[in-house]
Each structure stands twice: as C-alpha cells, then as structure tokens.
Amino acid sequence: MTSRSWKILIVDDEPDLCDLVSEEFEFAGCKTLRASSGNQAIKVFEGNDIDAVVSDVRMPDGNGIDLLRNIRSSSNPSALVFLVSGFADISKEKALEAGAAALIGKPYDIGSICQIVLRALEKEDSVGRAKN
C-alpha cells in the first residue's frame, strides 16, 4: 500500500489547524477526512475505511481519549491513532496502553507529524497490518 491510498482522519476543534494538517497529508498523497470533535469523528470513522487518525485530546463534544476507546472497540480496531495534546491530560504511557500509536505534544511541526504518521503506516504495512 502506498501513501496515496492511505485515508487519514484529522480531528481538531481548531478549523485552521485541522485544514493545515489535512493539507500536509494531502500534499504527501493521502486522502483526508476532517472532524471538529470526538463525537463527529466517531461518525466519520464508522462510515469510512480509515487507516490512521490524528486527534487532539481536548475538544468540546467528545475528546480524543474517548475517540481512541471507541476506535479500539470498533469494527476497524487496527487503525493507528495518534493523540495530540498540549496538556497533561494523559501520559505517554497511558496513551500507549490505551492503544494509541503515539502521544505528540503541542506545539508541533506539521511536517513532522505527517512524517511520524506516514512512517508508522509504512511500518505497519511492511509487517502486514490486519485490516478488518
């Protein structure tokens, strides 16, 4: 699978940041979907075959931690989830235990977050990630 076929869901309640991150992934050849809350993201996730989710932790109307839990109990639990936070809402260890691929601190470089996600997807594909 190439990056051109990966579908990434970007979740952030800051529309400009959501747009910038989405554009970076699209420039890398990925298809992106966007959501402005955890609850909206669950609906988008359930209706699409998502490979990875990049989600802010703190958002009104459903946070990133609850979104992660919902994804892990969904029909597509193998999707990689990257949580982003500028606060101590969850430790890196707890995020990984809950099934996150990574916890990324804010502020972050948009190009770097894209590379982190793409490298993780490439690694998963090289070991034969099971898609449900």
Describe the protein in words:
The structure is a single chain. The chain is an alpha/beta fold. It has a single domain, classed as Response regulator (Rossmann fold). The protein contains 5 helices and 5 strands, in the order E-H-E-H-E-H-E-H-E-H. It has helices at 15-27, 38-46, 64-72, 92-97, 110-126, and strands at residues 7-11, 31-35, 52-56, 80-85, 102-105. It has a 5-stranded parallel beta sheet with strand order 2-1-3-4-5, sandwiched between helices. Helix 3 (64-72) links the parallel strand 3 (52-56) and strand 4 (80-85). Helix 2 runs parallel beside helix 3. It is globular, with a radius of gyration of 13 Å.
Distinctive features:
132 residues, alpha/beta, Rossmann fold, 5-stranded parallel beta sheet, 5 helices
**Helix content class:** 40-55%
Largest beta-sheet characterization:
5 strands, parallel
Q: Termini separation (Å)?
A: 15 Å
Total number of helices: 5
CATH top level is: Alpha Beta
Secondary structure elements and pairings:
Layout lengths: L6 E5 L3 H13 L3 E5 L2 H9 L5 E5 L7 H9 L7 E6 L6 H6 L4 E4 L4 H17 L6
Parallel strand pairs: 1-2, 1-3, 3-4, 4-5
In a few lines, what is going on in this structure?
The protein is of the alpha/beta class and 132 residues long. The chain has 5 helices and 5 strands, in the order E-H-E-H-E-H-E-H-E-H.
